[in-house]
Amino acid sequence: MSQKILVGFLALAVLASALAVVYAKHQSRRLFVQLNELQQQRDRMNVEWGQLQLEQSTWATHGRIEKVARQKLHMTSLDFSQMVIVKP
Fold this sequence. Notes:
Structural class: mainly alpha
Radius of gyration: 35 Å
Number of helices: 2
Shape: rod-shaped
Number of strands: 0
Order of helices and strands: HH
Number of domains: 1
Helix content: over 70%
């Protein structure tokens, strides 16, 4: 009788162990898929960041700023004769 109980207990332990392995494998696959998605998102964000940096450098060029200042703000270069130097 005790041998049957021991065999039954061992069978339940093996079954529980097998279910734990299946669950661990499932979690591993799910986390791997999530990792791949996050890496793809990181790569897309890196590309977007590079594009934004390029765009910022384009908008901030000296020539563009001068063009906007002349066209929209009607600014002109100052002649040296109009310049006043203030000394402390």
